Amino acid sequence: MTTERDTPDNCEQLLLDNQACFALHSTSLLMTKVYKPLLQALGLTYPQYLAMMVLWERDGLTVGEISTRLLTDPGSLTPLLKRLEVEGLLSRTRSREDERVVIVELTEQGRALREKARSIPQCILGASGMTVERLNKLQAELQVLRDNLQNSL
After folding, report:
1. Residue 6: pLDDT band by 50, 70, 90 thresholds?
2. Is 25 part of any domain?
3. What residues contact 95, with CB distance under 8 A and at least 6 apart?
4. Torsion angles phi and psi, residue 98, rounded to 5
5. Sorting pLDDT into bands at 50, 70 and 90, what band is 13?
6. Domain that holds residue 103
7. Contact at 8 Å (CB) between 108 and 85?
8. Is a pLDDT exceeding 50 seen at residue 2?
């Protein structure tokens, strides 16, 4: 008995399980699900956590700089930053040199949250079932892929 999958007309490269994009997409969805309870304990969503990590690396960035670092649109980042400001984790102020530029700075509460987040990478490592070395290698390969894709645009 032949199935549609066995027919010569069916292109192997169009099978869902043969798509790198689906492997990345489905892995991203599951990664976010693993993060969810860890971040709920901090009162953050995953996108908020990413923004906070950028500011924990370097405080006092502009909305544009954060947006560039996260590969996102500044317009979609603004509501997220406003919510973090309402939560008392950061402040947003207009630049004196150019009022169109908004500078984002962590509050004391935002800096303190970094300590509470320290255990998250270890939890993710455990959930991955991989060694640090293997996960680092995968991350490096994904960064090369991301850079290549970005350069192709």
Report:
1. low
2. no
3. 62, 101, 102, 103
4. -150, 110
5. confident
6. 42-115
7. no
8. no
Asked if 63 and 75 count as a contact pair (C-beta separation under 8 A), the reply is no
pLDDT (average), residues 113-119: 97
How many domains does the chain divide into? 1
One-letter amino acid of 145:
L
- pTM for this predicted structure: 0.88
Question: In the chain, where does DSSP find H-type helix?
Answer: 20-40, 46-57, 63-70, 74-86, 108-117, 120-128, 132-151
Q: Which pair of structure tokens corresponds to residue 55? A: 């500011």
Question: How distant, in Å, are the alpha carbons of 22, 33, 50 from that of 26?
Answer: 6, 11, 19
Q: Is residue 107 part of a domain?
A: yes
Predicted confidence at residue 46, as pLDDT, reads: 97
Q: Which amino acid is at 146?
A: R
- What residues have CB less than 8 Å from 132, skipping those under 6 apart? 125
Instruction: Calculate mean pLDDT across residues 113-136.
Output: 97
Q: Is residue 91 part of a domain?
A: yes
- pLDDT band for position 11 (50/70/90)? confident
Statement: residue 5 has pLDDT above 90: no
| CATH code at position 102 | 1.10.10.10
- On whether residue 72 sits in a domain, the answer given is yes
